[in-house]
Design brief:
The protein is of the alpha+beta class and about 80 residues long. It has one domain. The chain is about 25% helix and about 35% strand. The protein has a four-stranded antiparallel beta sheet, covered by helices on one side. The longest helix is centred in the middle third of the chain and has 14 residues, at about 35-45. The protein is elongated and about 45 Å long.
Length: about 80
């Protein structure tokens, strides 16, 4: 069930960095832009009606580190989460 939900969310046509389905009603989506984050928030609110959808600005390590181990390259984006 989790893999089916994850594949449906990935086929939604919205850009993302990662989509994680942690349970039947628990999803985390990371994306880069605010407009995209708003669209993901709206989509998850319609899919999981009655649940609170949260969006927070966050940072994570970039796929390619151009800094040092003490100052790694970071990517800024948004984490959208649904937990029921």
């Amino acid at each position: 069930m989790k893999t089916a939900l994850e594949s449906k969310l990935k086929q939604a046509g919205l850009p993302f960095v990662s989509v994680k389905v942690l349970g039947a009603r628990s999803v985390h989506v990371r994306c880069l832009g605010r407009d995209t984050a708003d669209k993901w928030q709206l989509l998850l609110a319609t899919v999981f009606s009655g649940s609170k959808v949260r969006m927070v600005p966050t940072m994570w390590e970039a796929s390619e580190n151009k800094g040092t181990c003490l100052l790694p390259t970071m990517t800024k984006g948004f984490l959208i989460g649904v937990t029921a």
